[in-house]
Give the backbone structure.
Amino acid sequence: MFPPPMLPMHGNRFNTQERVLTLTQARQAFEAEKHTMARAFLAELDRVVTDGKLTAITRSSGGIEVAWRPTLKSVAGRAIWYRDTLRTFDTTTKPAKLIPVHMRKAAIELALRIIDNEDKLLNVMAHEFCHLANMLISNVYDKAHGKSFKEWEQGSLQCLRTRIFTSQHTITMRSIGSISGLAQRAIATIEGIQRESILLMNLAKNAEAN
């Protein structure tokens, strides 16, 4: 997890050069870990929200793909799925017969140029995951943000809140000694509230936009 970096302070003023360096390091750390982070959160969402149903549905096609797309510019993410049919030999019969095997493939596409921090990534992953669950489990295709979608959304929001709590706890533990205890606890609390507010507002905006 990569919480917002604690900025170095000199007296009551921020050191601009150190601030830029810290933000750059945070961005580099995110870039190095973002795909692993996305895959881990997807697995968590499927385990907690759908009890592994999406993994089961897409297992024959290799599971849900997470792909970063530089061509996505107007939206931060997109959920897609399609049916595919392969032909294979059934060796249980003699002679072996050529039979069709139906598979369902699914992917979450992420905008490479838009998603530049963990908050955006988790928000978009949760939203697009709800779309996949709505289509592949609930079999709802004509109401993208209807009642069924909102039911899946509630479970995803709970996963987001859990991640936010973990990040807030990490901020507090990592920063002990860098700033006085009372000031540090206040900053961690404020940042945790801000992160949750931003995530929930972004999720609502995405729902309206899509």
